[in-house]
Amino acid sequence: MIAIHSTALGPALGGTRFHAYASEEEAVLDALNLSRGMSYKNALAGLDHGGGKAVIIGDPDLIKTDELLLAYGRFVASLGGRYVTACDVGTYVADMDVVSRTNKWTTGRSPANGGAGDSSVLTAYGVFQGMRASAQHAWGDPTLRGRKVGIAGVGKVGHLLVEHLLQDGAEVVITDVRADSVDRVLAKYPQVTAVADTEALIRTEGLDVYAPCALGGALSDESLPVLTAKVVCGAANNQLAHPGVEKDLSDRGILYAPDYVVNAGGVIQVADELHGFDFDRCKIKAAKIFDTTLAIFARAKADGIPPAAAADRLAEQRMAEARRG
């Protein structure tokens, strides 16, 4: 299924999530929430795109085939350009190469097929820039050197974030539901510490930054009371389990870097693919996530609202201006 939230700024752009949802209702809700997040993400990333998202129900390890992906590509084509797709959880560059065979509104393709390749590279880079901005706001210094950062989910984006943090001098603690993902990081970076699960991670003593980099809903009524970190900044979409969590975070003195702001590096990359991809140009744009994040913190302080609300206001302002134009 494909959800289109807004086309005020241009064609809806968002990835394809391939996941074994428990029900069709759960899949629909995720698609709707993710499409809204993409509208706001694209707006604050300065892109001329609205927000959309697609989900395919099922275990990609069991049911993903070229025939299914080609059929999905025809579905995208049927929308006539109102929706532009890309990779997300459960889909990869090779999958987008297949999808693109039946429509021209596919990004995230391999360089061999005219694409930009893996968007995880700039997603992780953008999250790191958002984390640097968070450190600047929280501690007065835009570095994670000497800070303990906990990453929940070290898949496509999370394992690249580990590298940025280690290079910056951070101490890194990780967890993931997939043992092979954890093993891959530990084999490459033996100085990293692994814990059993997310609950153990957020209870880690001395944790400065919590980085949710898996599925959504990481910040909930259950996790918030035991969270020890002073900053939350990660790659996962829809980290707030429900409205009101952002105020709870603020009331507890926890700085939250809005997910759709800091994880926009990937969408910056795939959007550029539509105009002739240039990695260096994209990296410069992704680096601006640092400034955007700081501007959101400043707006939040000035308006006396949580950063998530400040980010929403800025994104809604840009979309409203486009509609009036």
Description:
It is a single chain. The protein has helices at residues 24-44, 60-63, 66-78, 93-99, 120-139, 158-167, 179-188, 198-202, 245-251, 259-262, 265-273, 279-287, 289-303, 307-324; strands at 2-6, 12-13, 16-19, 50-57, 83-84, 148-152, 171-175, 193-194, 209-212, 231-232, 255-256. By secondary structure, it is of the alpha/beta class. It folds into two domains: 2-36 and 52-113, Rossmann fold, CATH 3.40.50; 120-263 and 295-311, NAD(P)-binding Rossmann-like Domain (Rossmann fold, 3-Layer(aba) Sandwich), CATH 3.40.50. Strands 8-7-6-9-10-11 form a six-stranded parallel β-sheet, sandwiched between helices. The chain is globular and about 50 Å long. The model has no long low-confidence stretch (mean pLDDT 95). InterPro entries: Aminoacid_DH-like_N_sf, Glu/Leu/Phe/Val/Trp_DH, Glu/Leu/Phe/Val/Trp_DH_C, Glu/Leu/Phe/Val/Trp_DH_dimer, Glu/Leu/Phe/Val_DH_AS, Glu/Phe/Leu/Val/Trp_DH_bac/arc, NAD(P)-bd_dom_sf. Pathway: Amino-acid degradation; L-valine degradation. Residues 117-325 form the Glutamate/phenylalanine/leucine/valine/L-tryptophan dehydrogenase C-terminal domain. NAD(+) binds at residues 153-158.
Give the name of the CATH superfamily of the largest domain: NAD(P)-binding Rossmann-like Domain
Give the name of the CATH architecture of the largest domain. 3-Layer(aba) Sandwich
DSSP summary, beta strand count: 11
Q: Distance N terminus to C terminus? A: 31 Å
Helical segment count = 14
**Alpha carbon gyration radius:** 19 Å
- The computed structural class is alpha/beta
Which word captures the global form?
globular
Q: Strand-and-helix sequence, N→C?
A: EEEHEHHEHHEHEHEHEEHEHHHHH
Query: What is the CATH topology descriptor of the largest domain?
Result: Rossmann fold
Helix content: 40-55%
For the largest beta-sheet, the strand count, sense and barrel status come to: 6 strands, parallel
Averaged pLDDT, please?
Answer: 95
Binned strand content: 5-15%
